[in-house]
Specification:
The protein is an alpha+beta fold. It has 2 domains: about 100 residues, Anticodon-binding domain (Rossmann fold), CATH 3.40.50; about 70 residues, C-terminal domain of ProRS (Translation Initiation Factor IF3, 2-Layer Sandwich), CATH 3.30.110.30. The chain is built from 6 helices and 7 strands, in the order ααβαββαβαβαββ. The radius of gyration is 25 Å and the shape is elongated.
């Protein structure tokens, strides 16, 4: 069985970063947990019964226990599509989180309060002056995280001069 596992590892290794966990001093459950804790996105399980049936079992980390039996002849392609799916799901979750935790402040007091309360990313119209950034940083405890390239109309929330950008501020943890 170990020789066949090495062959499958080599086959997958041509397209993906693969690690065969052939340690005998640990149980499968211990190994599964360890690799999940390390953040491995996709685990390929291969046991004696799986080999007899000509299959492997895919277990995506984000699937909460969902196990997918896969014929060995389809394994490389299914690993590819599953990894793409994991990436898409993670990106969608991250975008949703970002959208839910981003707000554009209407005035200076709101900006300072939201940044102090660690409400996520707070957009602040900014004129580009270092003094305005320093004042907001001092008053809120936050710091700029990103300055999108899109220009914006309206006054700087700190000094009232014309703003060129919305700067997203946040506090560190």
């Amino acid at each position: 069985m170990l020789e066949r596992a090495r062959q499958i590892t080599a086959q997958l290794g041509e397209r993906f970063r693969v690690r065969l966990d052939d340690r005998e001093e640990y149980t499968p459950g211990w190994k599964f947990n360890e690799w999940e804790m390390r953040g491995v996105p996709l685990r390929v399980e291969l046991g004696p019964r799986d080999l007899q049936q000509g299959q492997a079992v895919l277990v995506p980390r984000d699937a909460e226990g969902r196990r997918q039996p896969v014929p060995l002849e389809e394994l490389v392609e299914r690993v590819r599509t599953e990894l793409e799916g994991i990436q898409a799901r993670m990106l969608e979750r991250a975008r949703g989180f970002l959208q839910a935790h981003t707000v554009v402040a209407r005035d200076y007091a709101e900006a300072v309060e939201r940044i102090r309360q660690r409400e996520g990313f707070v957009g602040v119209r900014w004129c580009g002056d270092q003094g305005c950034e320093d004042r907001l940083r001092d008053d809120s405890g936050g710091s700029p995280r990103v300055i999108p390239e899109e220009p914006v109309d309206g006054p700087c929330l700190v000094c009232g001069r014309p703003a060129g950008w919305v700067v997203y501020f946040a506090r560190a943890y």
